[in-house]
Specification:
By secondary structure, this protein is mainly alpha-helical. It has one domain. The chain is 80% helix and 0% strand. α1 packs antiparallel against α4 and α2 runs antiparallel to α3.
Length: 114
Amino acid sequence: MTYGQGFMTGFLFAVYSGIFTAVFIFIYYKFLSPAVYEEVVKNMRDQMISKGTPEESVDSVLRITGSVTFLTFATLIGSIISGTIISLIGAAIFKKERSPFDMVQDNNYSDPAV
């Protein structure tokens, strides 16, 4: 396995799993259990207020981040970024260098001495 093959496999896995997870989160919080998400937003508000955050700041933050759509996109982007980093590291660890003998056996190899 080359470095590129290992990276592409891990990257595609991260993209597909991120899409699957984001769709699941959207469906769950939007349609199946919206009360759970409302409770999460309420807890976020309570934590920010208990830390002394001004009410205007709490409202502006929750206006942006307090929607299911934001959570869905944040999940997708986070999965892709973390999957890319893990794929880069995994491909570097598991790559297999090709020997010169393997290159001679390839049909696309041409000897530069000829």
